[in-house]
Amino acid sequence: MTPDSNRAPRVPMFRDRTDAIATIAVGIVLACVAYSFARWAVVHAVWHLPADAGSAPCRAVKGEGACWAVVVENVRFMLFGSYPRAEQWRPIVVCLLFVSLYGASLVRALWTRWLLALWIADSAVAVVLLRGGRLGLSEVPTEFWGGLPLTFLLSTAGFTLALPFAVLLALGRRSGLPAIRTLCVGYIEVVRGVPVITFLFMAAVMFPLFTPASVSIDKLLRAQIAFVMVMAAYVAEVIRSGLQAVPRGQYEAAASIGLPFWPAMILVVLPQALRVSIPALVNTFIALFKDTSLVIVIGLFDLLGTAKAVLVDGRWVGFGVEVYLFAASVYFVFCYIVSRFSLRLEQELRRAAGAA
Amino acid sequence: MIRTIRWQLAVASVVVAIAAAIAAQTAVNLRARGIASGFDFLSRPAGFEIARGLLSFSSRDTYTRALLVGLVNTVRVSLLGIVIATSLGLLVGIARLSEIWIVSTVARTYVEVTRNTPLLLQLLFWYTLTQGLPAAPEALNPLPGVYLCFRGLFLPAPIWRHGFPWIGLERPALVGFGFQGGTSVSPEFAALVIGLSIYTAAFIGETVRGGIMAVGRGQAEAAVAVGLSRLHALRFVVLPQALRVVIPPATNQFLNLFKNSSLAVAIGYPDLMSITNTTLNQTGQAIEAIALAMVVYLAVSLSLAAGMSLYNGSVLRRGGGA
After folding, report:
1. Is the Cβ pair A195, B262 closer than 8 Å?
2. Could you give the ipTM of this predicted complex?
């Protein structure tokens, strides 16, 4: 539907003189904004505080200059939460693991079965490493987990665990068996029709009612289950459109060589459907990555949660703009790189489909 | 045939068995905690206050009314957000395709920054900005009778008078550390509407851009060739055709905005989700409260989707099909 960008019809707006006037006008406004932002963020900014001054030097320039000292002094807390300081090499390793996993996933030459296995393995290793209690590592309960590793873990494990359920839901939605189809359609539509946050509240207050009193499921795990439940429905819709893109002949060919339903799906249809869905799956992953920030409403501390927690400290009350700008830039770097990749991939796949 | 029925029976009975096991366990747990299930709590007095809104509310009113106030607030925020996000999104979509480099770059930067950061973060950011405003006694006073402080925006409001000319203007007045009289916009409401609109407008802008690009370039050129100005070509030829492509994805964005308005709970605006949360904390009726909220959100989502689908049908008919 969308032609290549070089064929895109440019919207007729202005030409020649009006064009020039508009450029200059917008340019002047931009320059003014950039100037006052630079004055605030660079010229009058406070980067370091003397040891015993509290936040007084920051308060002195409040409104005039940024207090980057709040970020400098709290950067470890924001990135790793209240994880014991002596053990912080563990969340650092976990972050590096996830970053290299995402990096590897951006290289198409590495798209093999092994990469899929790596997605599963990475989350498992991260949990073992963060939790400890074995391999000579001291045990760190999940209440102390926080910051970036939590954001990575919730989104990566959530996405990986949701994928098999999503495939089942998508197949079920296209199934010829009315009972199964009704169940799958009902689940998908209900989940997509209500806010994600209702599922988090459900995880926080309802799940404990579902299990015997002797079994208490960790709050982080409950949040993770809620995300898996939600993501399964969203990812199912993505896979469904991938399944629709597989030509009918493929289903028929698989049936004609005598393949039963499941082998036909696993060997013939799903590999093609998933391949077409990859750009949309990447976009869904970005959405999930951003949505993990919702866990702060049930009292978990992901990257946004730790940023918000900094501001509770009396010294740093009122420096929210600086803290949130820092957190936003971390989110932005990840989401922007991944979304660029997804866009390029979409174009490549479309070109490949056009050439075929 | 028999095999397929067996499959369906198997799946259905597994689902029923899980549901029954959960229900049985929940009943045991509820009895152990002394929570009586049911919706009786809805008619009990709520005992908490809600900031002034369209519906009046006092702590003696029932939970039903509290939840209704929350729903009205949710709908109000969503409708206002949808109007602003659509207008802004239309501008952004057009600006993205502008021939003027600086305009398209500004629009692109806006879209990338808003789409690649979490909405909740953006809401907290806008709320923090409002909390950086001065206190009431030092409130900004850009126009006579208009005051802006960290407690919100205070505006003059028309009031009925007994004598001629019957309508008067009541200006807010500083009383202690707040303003009284006139009308006001709370910082929570402002942050929520601004945040939701700006976030959703970036997504709507992209669908508008896609819609315009789906209209062939020849359409705009033909319109100009027959003597329409460039602005008129956009208004009367390109946009009406783009609209048909844009409505379905834009509907999804409206639904997202409506569902995302539940993030109000994080900045303390009394929407349906916040009031549900307060209700379940006070009464302990977690299952009933969350189920009720889910049903209401689902009902509004489905009716919004149905309404937009009717509108889409009428646009397609008017245009003679896409």
Report:
1. yes
2. 0.88
